[in-house]
Amino acid sequence: MFLKDFCKGVILSSMFFTIFGRMEETLILEKEIEFFENDTITMKCDFSEIFQNSDEIDVVKVFAANFEWFFIKNGSVTPLLNNSNDKFVENSNLRNFYSISQIKNVNESDEGTYECRINIDDQSPYKIKYNTKFQKNKVTNITGIQGKPIQILCDFKKNKNEGQIFWELNEKILNIDEHPVDPNPTGRFLSSAINIKNLDKAKHEGEYNCIWKNSKGEKQTKIYFLKINLDNELDSNSSNKISASIKRISVTNAVILAVILIIFNNVM
For the stretch 44-54, what's the b/e string if a residue is b when 16 or more beta carbons lie within 10 angstroms of its beta carbon? Predict the structure, then answer.
């Protein structure tokens, strides 16, 4: 997941309650996850510690049980199933009491609660919840100078050892002739850099999207906004700063001189 990732787990309950011979619904774990657009959310539903250490649960019945995943939003509960477009992918390992699911190419509509349940012998389920929160992609601001060179480096470090990177400028595929791209400049997994020798405000200023994508449809984006200053803008800013500094010094000196005169008059 391009994925920036945040995951915090809180153990809520591992106790078992019996009413008329049936198990109450038991929440084992609840986690919070923040995700960005086009990330892949990975969630693990792991009951191994509970089931392996319990004398009240028949492990043989666990092996015959099924994991179920649900998406809960605005009071609506939707079952999640492996589907043809690979948006949701789930793999279960009942022998080791866990299930792993992935939600791919997520966007704001995927924000909500994901719930994993396992039912043993038709008893009420054990549950693990993932509460997810959508975050807008962070924009990295970069400043260049008209006529000067610049490099914009994009580096996907985490598990991005397959696929490819391409660039967009203001939501249009980048013209490689105008923006030479250096693949893998850092030697790390799938990095890419744009090298511009002569910045032109009219051609090069704007939003650059560095997009990683693989054959499975997984996608992650990093956003950079390039602002190009003209030489006269820099000169004007520098002059204004110098003028402001001189004014501050003049005011300070005037105050000091006034204080000295007051002290001198009092002494005399």
Answer: ebbbeebbeee
Tell me the C-alpha to C-alpha distance, in Å, between residue 224 and each of 168, 179, 209.
10, 14, 6
- Specify whether 126 is located in the same domain as 144: no
Percent of the chain with pLDDT over 90: 23
Q: For residue range 162-180, what is the model confidence (pLDDT) as tens digits?
A: 778 889 999 898 876 667 7
Whether 206 shows a pLDDT value over 90: the answer reads: yes
29 and 105 in a single domain? The answer is yes
Whole-number pLDDT of residue 47? 82
Does the residue 248 lie in any domain? Answer: no
Give the whole-angstrom CA distance, residue 223 versus residue 209: 5
pLDDT tens-place string over residues 32-65: 998 887 788 899 988 887 777 666 666 667 776 7
Residue-range definition of the domain harbouring residue 163: 139-229
**Whole-Å CA distances, 215 to 164, 166, 234:** 9, 14, 45
The whole-angstrom distance between residue 71's C-alpha and the CA centroid of its chain comes to: 20
